[in-house]
């Protein structure tokens, strides 16, 4: 049940606001619980049948609010924390609101300005249109591009950030973000910046965007700005990069009950003074996807993604990852649905790898590429070239 407190506050202080002015304010509590049974064919050499959570969408609990402060302007905030519905534990140790925590102002004429821990413009434009992961969430983590290498699912939430969105004008909206690194004497260190442009007109939607992540330390995992950088068997050898640059685009077209789309991205890990690799590592991803509304209650989705890494740092047989995903979602009511997901990934070639750590990284070595479906298997990749997963779950929003 969604709870909302809405009130009118009259402020009569002389010189501040007239007695006839009324400020409309609201605070909404909301959440989502996503739990089911999952099977993975190979996690470190063994199959696994277990209860799973947060597959299609991450479990969450939050508050969002708005207050009319006059002149068509509203003060806004969001505080949102993730949790594990199987154990009740916090989604991330050390964070009460690990998903989002920001405050700002919005105006229909001048746009929206927010400050805090936020998603990137790239995520809520390119990611939202990029198919089965990201904002469309037809297949959740199973449909994210391998390892969420391009941040189009939820692999990037940025601390200490300032985000601006223009008003929506004839279907067009731009957005830009800058995050302060907080390093004395060096404004560039640990900073993040990015921008995106999105267009929607009738059945067509498209977006293009980029992120630039600067890392002054020796480990992207412990960067103070990158709140939860996605690490996996795909990028594990490059976590000592001095910077990561991501460029991506996505588009989709809807005709009646059918949606079809494409997306692509280019990701560059650049070495620096503290890096344990010498050459730039480049990952290119291309994807196609579709969804069909079979009935008012039933939606079917399918997608294919191909990620290819560059030959560098001694790797002469570069890694490739081919992934196919299917999803079936059946709505029992407005807030409750059951769903089934299936995904298969095949890896080939070699890659540079070192186990992700919050301590001092070890020197990466050349290994055979292993399968790691979407971003839900980032910490439990296959021991070999193949991985298959199946999930049956129920989800409720409130």
From TrEMBL:
InterPro entries noted in UniProt: Gram-neg_bact_OMP (IPR050298), Gram_neg_porin_domain (IPR033900), Porin_dom_sf (IPR023614)
UniProt-listed Pfam families: Porin_4
Gene3D superfamilies: Porin
Topology in the lipid bilayer: Multi-pass membrane protein
GO molecular function, one term: porin activity
Keyword Metal-binding: no
One GO-annotated biological process of the protein: monoatomic ion transport
Keywords: Cell outer membrane, Ion transport, Membrane, Porin, Signal, Transmembrane, Transmembrane beta strand, Transport
Coiled-coil residue windows: none
Keyword Transport assigned: yes
Compartmental location: Cell outer membrane
Domain of life: Bacteria
Residue ranges of domain Porin in the record: 12-348
Record GO cellular component, one term: cell outer membrane
Signal peptide feature range: 1-23
Subunit and partners: Homotrimer.
Protein name stated in the entry: Porin
